[in-house]
């Protein structure tokens, strides 16, 4: 007899679990070796506390009352709980703080899409070290983690979370119009973007073209030069920040794994400055992401710059398998 | 196996770019625009029953238009061409929409039987219209946006049939010339939106095969402008 489990959750049997554990150990070893000790936080927290960090969605996807009537929520990531932990438990300690985690997180999904409600995130948080050093250190750890997972072809996309907000402010676009343009940029709907931009009063053709062109710029450091050619304060600021970070990455010898991508936008409300995404050519979806969230800790009463990344463990496992079978195919030839 | 691995250098994706080509109403014009962009489609045009065609530097994969977002989202195809109606109906598929190709122009409309007031009647007396459609998401969003309640009836085949034999008061459907509506004694009551063919890309392919995707986008943009 089949007793169902909720869609988006699953059981793991020993063959898979052995591989997942191997991957987890490899990642945690990388984190630990670089000074990122593992922390555990509760899977359930007060909804109010999570909502404080998650600017956009307002708390977790799954909320319920406990026996004393308090509203609890399942965590949707580890960044907010760790920000809470640092603000509370480590208020007196000298930053920077380096933490890693390996934890199940919970998000609402659309049914029948094969998306998971419960999935494991493996990541690190570096709190108290500003850009560009902090960002570069995170990328360095991420690169090492990808190598440890056997994904030596994986690429790290590096963008700037503030670029379009500042650009549109510079163009005099605010409020709802700006939100809907940012939304088009986030979903990368270029046809809709052009329509949306040309519908806004006071944006001329050049400004429209700048916005569309920026969203398509991705590649090596030459991209920054091209972008600067488009002019404007917002572009200048973002490219200067990216340039600094990229130079720091070059010094650390990890720049060739990084693709600068001015079209990058992450949908979580707390990012500011550098943002990251991880791709592997063997799989069609994003393996993880992260970036800076210099203003998140402030929401918990501690003003510290911060950055981090999370890899989706199950997706990394898929990529690992694809890369292995590809290597075997190549080896046979 | 005729399978090429493009070098062994890191971060170099495998093989030629895979393009999802929609069969059906958009098929002919899609092949025309690909010709215009310098892609050889002669084999696809032949009466071969295969679904996958190797051309120089690109693999063409033919499929139902409504499957294009699925293949492209998963990265099984790197890029693809399909109608805006399909993209809207599957708005939760995460694909990058890069270009309006301009062809395959048609309208999504609300239609009812000529001279028949059932839609208004149901609205007034039952508080909702009964609408048959193959596009539940587009229809739902349209009526929500315009503040009206409907009972949605999803059908898979010829939706024109529904109001003729009493399944629903009206239909939401795609209209190119309007002949099908005319032949079935139906008329357009409201226009919902206009649809054309779009060029879409997988998120990861757009990042990791940037040069190839951009080159193809530029060629298609040029061909579409002709």
Shape of chain A: globular
Class from helix and strand fractions of chain A = alpha+beta
Number of helices of chain B: 10
Arithmetic mean pLDDT of chain A = 92
Low confidence ranges of chain A: none
- End-to-end CA span of chain A: 47 Å
Q: What structural class results from the helix and strand content of chain B?
A: alpha/beta
Q: How can the largest sheet of chain A be summarized? A: 9 strands, mixed
Q: Whole-Å distance between the termini of chain B?
A: 38 Å
Sheet with the most strands: spatial strand order of chain B = 2-3-1-4-11-5
Order of H and E elements of chain B: EHHEEHEHEEHEHEHEHEEHH
Give the largest chain-chain interface (CB within 8 Å).
Answer: A-B, 32 and 29 residues
- Strands of chain A, total number: 12
Total beta-strand segments of chain B = 11
Please compute the radius of gyration of chain B using only Cα atoms. Answer: 20 Å
Name the average pLDDT of chain B. 90
pLDDT < 50 stretches of chain B = 1-12
Shape of chain B: elongated
Please give a structural write-up.
- The complex is a heterodimer of chains A (333) and B (226).
- With 333 residues, chain A is an alpha+beta fold.
- Helices cover 43% and strands 19% of the residues of chain A.
- A 9-stranded mixed sheet of chain A has the order 1-5-6-12-11-10-7-9-8, sandwiched between helices. In chain A, strands 2-4-3 form a 3-stranded antiparallel sheet.
- In chain A, β3 and β4 form a beta hairpin.
- In chain A, α4 (133-148) packs across α10 (233-251), α7 (190-199) runs antiparallel to α8 and α9 runs antiparallel to α10.
- By secondary structure, chain B is α/β, with parallel strands linked by helices.
- Chain B has a 6-stranded mixed sheet, sandwiched between helices. A 5-stranded mixed sheet of chain B has the order 8-7-9-6-10.
- In chain B, β2 (52-55) and β3 (58-63) form a beta hairpin.
- Chain A binds chain B through residues 110, 113, 152-155, 157, 187-192, 216, 218-219, 257, 259, 261, 277, 279-286, 326, 329-330, 333, and chain B through 3, 5, 8, 10-14, 73-76, 92, 94, 96-100, 198, 202-208, 210, 214.
């Amino acid at each position: 007899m089949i007793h169902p489990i909720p869609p988006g959750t699953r059981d793991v049997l020993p063959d898979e679990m052995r591989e997942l554990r191997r991957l987890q150990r490899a990642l945690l070893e990388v984190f630990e070796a670089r000074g990122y000790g593992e922390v555990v936080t509760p899977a359930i927290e007060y909804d109010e506390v999570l909502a404080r960090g998650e600017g956009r969605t307002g708390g977790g996807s799954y909320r319920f009352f406990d026996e004393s009537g308090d509203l609890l929520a399942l965590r949707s990531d580890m960044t907010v709980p760790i920000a809470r932990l640092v603000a509370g438990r480590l208020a007196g300690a000298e930053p920077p703080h380096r933490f890693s985690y390996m934890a199940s997180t919970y998000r609402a999904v659309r049914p029948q899409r094969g998306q998971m409600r419960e999935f494991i995130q493996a990541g690190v948080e570096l709190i108290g070290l500003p850009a560009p050093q902090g960002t570069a250190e995170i990328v360095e750890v991420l690169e090492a983690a990808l190598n440890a997972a056997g994904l030596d072809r994986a690429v790290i996309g590096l963008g700037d979370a503030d670029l379009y907000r500042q650009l549109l402010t510079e163009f005099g676009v605010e409020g709802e119009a700006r939100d809907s343009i940012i939304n088009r940029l986030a979903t990368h709907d270029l046809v809709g973007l052009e329509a949306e931009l040309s519908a806004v009063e006071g944006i001329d053709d050049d400004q429209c073209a700048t916005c569309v062109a920026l969203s398509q710029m991705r590649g090596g450091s030459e991209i920054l030069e091209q972008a600067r050619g488009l002019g404007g304060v917002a572009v200048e600021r973002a490219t200067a920040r990216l340039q600094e970070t990229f130079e720091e990455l070059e010094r650390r010898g990890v720049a060739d794994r990084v693709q600068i991508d001015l079209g990058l936008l992450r949908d979580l409300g707390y990012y500011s400055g550098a943002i990251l995404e991880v791709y592997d050519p063997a799989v069609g979806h994003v393996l993880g992401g992260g970036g800076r969230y210099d203003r998140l800790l402030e929401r918990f009463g501690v003003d510290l710059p911060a950055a981090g990344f999370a890899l989706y463990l199950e997706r990394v496992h898929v990529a690992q398998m694809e890369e292995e079978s590809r290597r075997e195919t190549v080896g046979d030839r | 196996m005729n399978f090429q691995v493009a070098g062994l250098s890191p971060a170099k994706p495998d093989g030629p770019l895979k393009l999802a080509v929609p069969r059906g109403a958009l098929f002919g014009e899609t092949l025309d625009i690909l010709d215009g962009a310098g892609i050889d489609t002669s084999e696809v045009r032949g009466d071969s029953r295969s679904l996958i065609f190797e051309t120089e530097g690109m693999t063409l994969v033919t499929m139902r238009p409504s499957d294009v977002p699925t293949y492209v989202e998963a990265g099984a195809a790197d890029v693809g061409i399909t109608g805006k109606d399909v993209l809207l109906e599957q708005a939760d598929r995460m694909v990058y929409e890069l270009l309006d190709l301009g062809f395959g122009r048609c309208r999504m409309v609300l239609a009812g039987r000529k001279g028949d007031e059932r839609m208004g009647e149901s609205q007034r007396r039952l508080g909702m219209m009964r609408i048959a459609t193959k596009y539940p998401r587009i229809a739902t969003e349209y009526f929500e946006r315009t503040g009206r309640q409907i009972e949605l009836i999803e059908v898979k085949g010829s939706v024109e049939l529904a109001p003729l034999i009493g399944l629903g008061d009206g239909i939401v459907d795609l209209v190119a010339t309007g002949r099908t509506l005319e032949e079935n004694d139906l008329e357009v009551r409201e226009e919902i939106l206009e649809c054309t063919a779009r060029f879409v890309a997988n998120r990861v392919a757009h990042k990791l095969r940037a040069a190839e995707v951009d080159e193809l986008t530029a060629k298609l943009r040029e061909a579409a402008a002709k």
